[in-house]
Design brief:
alpha+beta; Spore Coat Polysaccharide Biosynthesis Protein SpsA, Chain A; two-stranded antiparallel ribbon; about 25% helix; globular
Length: about 170
């Protein structure tokens, strides 16, 4: 296992104050809440809390630095049946050409891992998205929207990754 590194920047947990699914802000709402509440005006690395992985995030960050465009980490899970549970991604030459959230009939086994890097210049696009009537729950909806406006790049993950969004899935890893 790789030795853990010390980061130059601090990590802060931001609590949106919700107590139930009825009053939650959704994934995009939480992102906007953190950006607004902490007055973030910088590049943003987002790792959804239901990720379990064993790879170095620095590789994704270096990929991002070469492009300075929105990056989504993707993983080929090798199963169209399992892909139905995720945001399904098709990419060509490193650029995402389609993103469909939990499709009934996926056309790819490449899925979103819930790891995103947004450049500073996209902060206003995130805020503008919040003013639309579009879904605020899954950040994949934001990526789908971004694809209409700009390039979004796919960073293919190598190594172990698993979504542990429910107890049943989490317990299979024990």
């Amino acid at each position: 296992m790789e030795k853990l590194r010390t980061f130059k920047k601090s990590v802060e947990i931001v609590n949106d104050g919700t107590n139930s699914n009825d009053d939650r802000l959704g994934g995009i709402g939480d992102l906007d809440f953190a950006i607004s509440g902490k007055k973030i005006d910088d590049d943003i690395l987002v790792v959804l809390g239901d990720n379990y992985f064993e790879f170095n995030l620095n590789d994704a960050v270096e990929f991002f630095k070469k492009r300075n465009e929105c990056v989504l980490a993707i993983k080929d899970i090798g199963s169209l049946k399992e892909a139905k549970k995720f945001g399904v991604v098709r990419a060509e030459n490193g650029k995402i050409i389609s993103f469909v959230e939990k499709p009934e009939n996926p056309d790819s086994s490449h899925v979103s891992t819930g790891i995103y890097i947004f450049p500073r210049k996209d902060i206003n696009l995130i805020r503008e998205y919040m003013e639309t009537g579009l879904p605020k729950d899954g950040p994949g909806f934001l990526i789908h929207h971004f694809l209409k406006l700009q390039d979004v790049f796919a960073f293919p993950l190598e190594g172990f990754w698993h979504d542990i969004g429910d107890m049943k899935t989490y317990e299979t890893l024990k």
